[in-house]
Design goal:
This is ISXO2-like transposase domain-containing protein. It comes from Tribolium castaneum (Red flour beetle). This protein has 240 residues and is mainly alpha-helical. The protein has 2 domains: 1-100, no CATH class; 101-240, no CATH class. The chain has helices at residues 27-31, 45-54, 109-120, 125-131, 140-159, 161-172, 181-199, 206-218, 226-237; strands spanning 72-75, 83-86, 93-95. The protein has a 3-stranded antiparallel beta sheet with strand order 1-2-3, with no helix packed on it. The longest helix is centred in the middle third of the chain and has 20 residues, at 140-159. The chain is globular, with a radius of gyration of 20 Å. Residues 164-170 have low confidence and may be disordered. The protein binds zinc ion. Zinc ion binds next to loops. Zinc ion is lined by residues 64, 66-67, 87, 89-90, 92.
Length: 240
């Protein structure tokens, strides 16, 4: 189905939602989806906005706080995302990114989704830069985004303390045959390799990488679906 933006002109009421409510994915819907870089290469900005709304990463509808009326989804070409929420009563407007994981960035939604996908795949940064088409003067932002991703991992571990304990035992007791020692060690070797490759021997980042490692280890059984699990972490931490 193609997405037609209602411009709200000449007596036609503008949309007060981005996608139909029945298109919004459940946790299992997100969990079972198959992704690759190609599938995350959107045909248009509206496709990327729709995708984010379906995956509960941005508001699908928004009420104006003072008026309590649904805001309209309107075209604003001069602004980054090309659209904004606007109240027809008081004229107040709001970013599509309000309350979302994306609110702190000027990169496009598609670029951020691509970076997060590449991070979840544990791809090299040069690959992610290439896939996300990051321009040379904003390359530091990819380092920031990988750091934000590790923050999500850290918060997940704070929110799931019992599971953290289990995985810390895995980490400090790798000889226990009950646990998948080899997988843990392999993952830890790859993580250390990544650490050295990207940041030399900087120890400030060690704890941050350790959170990433523990998070990845927790989901090692579904490692082809790490991006899906990571999306669910974002959904939980940035409820919209
Ligand atoms: Zn209003």
């Amino acid at each position: 189905m193609h997405f037609k933006v209602n411009m709200g002109g000449r007596g036609v009421p503008a949309n007060t939602f981005i996608v139909n409510v029945d298109e919004i994915l459940t946790d299992d819907g997100i969990r079972n989806e198959f992704f690759n870089y190609k599938r995350l290469s959107f045909k248009s900005i509206t496709d990327s906005i729709r995708w984010c709304a379906r995956h509960r990463l941005i508001h699908n509808s928004l009420r104006c706080a003072p008026c309590e009326e649904p805001m309209s989804f309107v075209v604003r070409h001069q602004l980054g995302d090309g659209f904004r929420w606007q109240c027809k009563i008081c004229g107040a407007s709001s970013s599509l990114r309000k309350d979302s994981f994306f609110s702190r960035s000027h990169l496009s939604l598609e670029q951020i989704v691509t970076i997060v996908y590449g991070w979840a795949r544990n791809d090299e940064q040069f690959r992610i830069i290439c896939e996300a088409e990051i321009s040379s003067n904003t390359r530091n932002t990819i380092v920031d985004w990988c750091s934000f991703c590790r923050d999500i991992c850290e918060q997940f571990l704070v929110d799931h303390p019992s599971e953290v304990i289990i995985h810390e035992q895995n980490f400090v007791n790798p000889n226990d045959p009950e646990i998948h020692t080899q997988n843990v060690e392999n993952l830890w070797m790859r993580t250390k390799h990544k650490l050295r490759r990207q940041f030399g021997t900087s120890e400030d980042l060690f704890v941050s990488y350790l959170h990433e490692f523990i998070w990845r280890n927790k989901f090692r059984q579904v490692r082809d679906y790490l991006f899906n699990e990571f999306l669910l972490c974002i959904v939980k931490q940035y409820p919209i």
